[in-house]
């Protein structure tokens, strides 16, 4: 006898950003699926993967916020990491096989001196155990098959690198780096510079762009909340845009903007247009645009060459009649 199908639970149209404090052992995609199910959300996405062995900040975007998730993919990241000196592994972290064990004959002065060498622009060779693709196949698939393929070194930037503590052979540091930086490769390279090798044993992401763990919530905490409390954890869409200057438009300009029309900066109703026009050359031209009447976010625009040009619009921002 055919079992009756359970009625499908309707999904909700939600807009906002959840700052998730992801736990160890959970992939970014699994975390997204579980959170999306908890919120009964129609549309959600994450802003770049965080390895299962890493914990920390994983911003999840819902609804209209997914339009702006690319900015977080491009943003600088901050991590707190622990590397173990004296042991090199096949993966650069604690999951790999031990390749070499060397004596650790360094102290804090040598470690501090080594860190100096890795601040600023550096060159990194992506690890074999990574999701980068070669001929359409992730590098980790080659690595699991025992193959090593040639990888081109990439330029990344280490904006800050600070020693937090030592309990040799373990060394803990904080790093703020550009997108595409592999922290386990950084640990391996620091170990090589010290002459004893190293591998990563712990990694926690504490910042993505201007977002931090300060207002993050764990999956376990979300599961214990009722629906109203979970919804209260969502931050507004413009939490992703806090580093952009803002401009507020009057009724006429709002209508034209939502219709995709360019606006002359000189015609904006406040001093904001003149301020945007005076920005230094080379500055990020993007601005967040609001409706003056109620403070609603309308989208993101580019303020350059004397005009405010719509770039991404919020679909739920109705065009005034």
Keywords, separated by commas or semicolons:
five-stranded mixed sheet; 19 strands; alpha+beta; 321 residues
Characterization of the model:
This protein is α+β, with helices and mostly antiparallel strands and 321 residues long. It has 9 helices and 19 strands. It has helices at residues 28-39, 69-74, 108-116, 139-144, 183-194, 219-224, 227-232, 251-258, 272-277; strands spanning 16-22, 44-46, 55-62, 77-85, 87-89, 98-101, 120-124, 133-134, 137-138, 154-167, 170-177, 198-208, 211-212, 217-218, 246-249, 263-264, 286-291, 297-304, 307-313. Strands 1, 2, 3, 4, 7, 10, 11, 12, 13 and 14 form a 10-stranded mixed beta sheet that branches. Strands 15-17-18-19-16 form a 5-stranded mixed beta sheet. Strand 12 (198-208) and strand 13 (211-212) form a beta hairpin. The longest helix is centred in the first third of the chain and has 12 residues, at 28-39.
